Prior knowledge:
By secondary structure, this protein is α/β, with parallel strands linked by helices. The protein has helices spanning 2-8, 12-45, 51-97, 102-152, 154-174, 177-202, 204-209, 214-247, 250-264, 271-313, 369-376, 399-405, 420-424, 433-442, 446-450, 468-481, 498-510, 547-552, 556-574; strands spanning 331-340, 343-353, 358-362, 384-389, 392-393, 406-409, 486-490, 516-520, 532-537, 540-545. The strands form 2 sheets. Strands 6-7-8-3-9-10 form a 6-stranded mixed beta sheet, sandwiched between helices. A 4-stranded antiparallel beta sheet has the order 2-1-4-5, with helices on one face. 32% of the residues are buried. Mean pLDDT is 81; it is low at 570-575.
Amino acid sequence: MSHLSEMLRPFRARLGLAIALQAVAGICSLLPLIALAQLADSLRQAPPLASSAMSWVTVAVLASALWLCGQPLALHLTHQVDADLGERLRVRLAEHLQRLPLGWFARLGPEGVTRYAEQDVRALHQLVGHAPTDLVNLLLIPLATLAYLLWSNSALALWCLLPLALGMLGYWRLGSAHYREDVAGRNGAIQRLFSDYSQFAGNLGLVRQFPDAGIHRRMQEAVRQFDQRFSHWVSRAGHISALIQVLLSAPWLLGWVVLGTLFIGVTEVGAVQVCGFLLLVRAMAAPVLAMGHGFDALNNAHVSAQRLQEVLSTPPLSEPDAPQSPRDASVEMLDVSFAQDDVAILKSINLRLEPGTTTALVGPSGAGKSTLAGLIARFMDVDSGQVRVGGVDVRQIASRQLQQHLALVFQQAGALRLSLAQNIALYRPAASEEQIRAVARAACLDSWIMGLPKGYASVVDDDVRLSGGELQRLAIARALLSNAPILLLDEPTSAIDPQTERALRSALRDDAAGRTRLIIAHRLETVVHAEQILVLCEGRIVQRGCHAHLLAMDGLYRQLWNEQMSTADQLEFVS
């Protein structure tokens, strides 16, 4: 919990004040009950307005006022700390996550990131917002009450302590290792249920098309497993929980006090003592009973805090102590190898992209093309070898400067919840409206955007929803507007119709003056004009050269070309 303790350091004064206020409020919550017990005897022996009776009334009123003010203020302080801590954690997570290697995200998946950034931070609410005050109540109120009851009648106090001790023993038993596996199984089933329901909701088209297979079946299995795990947990722990609830319930405790009074002897127990016990035993049991309600939440918060500590402890991509600047727009890979989860993705890669040239990277799916581009952008670090941009190892370039040196267009393009103009100008926020419209025209977007009711002021997802092709064209416009001397294009036109694709290829060629471009392509006809074509297969570069040179050789490139041309002819014949 070192990271959480460190982040709580600025809030220790507020938490300390909250604990002190809750301690005062806890004691004050008992005083009105003690006053009522004393009044029961005082009013029997003296007139209602006697000074002794009025003193207890004053104590009850003042204590009630302090209790009603102190407890809400204590909870306000702890919840304020919870809100401030949540904000700091989310900011710190955002800063840390953006520096982690992409392989970490690939293993975790988007739902895992959501769990860290939202669910786990929210789970700390019980640990920070309620645990400090609950622990004060749990420790202070029973001890203070027991002390008063022991002073009043020690025999009856020990008798009344028995159900409370049994209740605490039961909660300790439920939290022991004996039930830990059942709780973990139940929580795991809940997590899987949430995950599968999320996939189910995000793929309703496939669910309706194949109702008895895939996602639908997996969700049904998750529901069945949750029902099984939850039922097993209830059957194991339910009887203990039910017994504790009965032992600590008001009717049972009041009956237990009366039984103890009869057992000890009515004549030995005064009226004040009986009233005090009837009022205070339930007050003493309430914090113990709260252990059951808050046990799961506290346990989950502890697990969430451990997970947050683990992710915050994950080493990010390092920043250089003495950053260097790229000297030009060249890109090199020197004997680069990279593996993920012990599976080799790239092996002994050597290449050079000369400044101002266009290089195409082609090959079968799964050959490692996108991974190669990710290493150039330093989304992750190589296992061996060097990646150089502008003659400098990317590990020696400050991340912000490397980002400014590269413009990226991915196959799965995205957009932020900003206006279309702001989305296009992400690389250059200060770009003028005419500059934004110029690149939008080059990306075949301007006429479509101007046809929208709000034009370039349209906010993504609020005013307009973008298709895959529109997202790709938006990303291309964004790259064209950037000042980056290197463009990394990963299947930039895969979701675009052929006519628009030809216009975009022409725009990218016209923009190429002075820029170094790496284009990952599946359709070979889109990269025949590249000065250099690299053929990647099973993590190795197996061929390199221009289109004519590679087509004249008997190798993988010609095989892929012949297959695509044959398929294209068949499609043209069918159409």
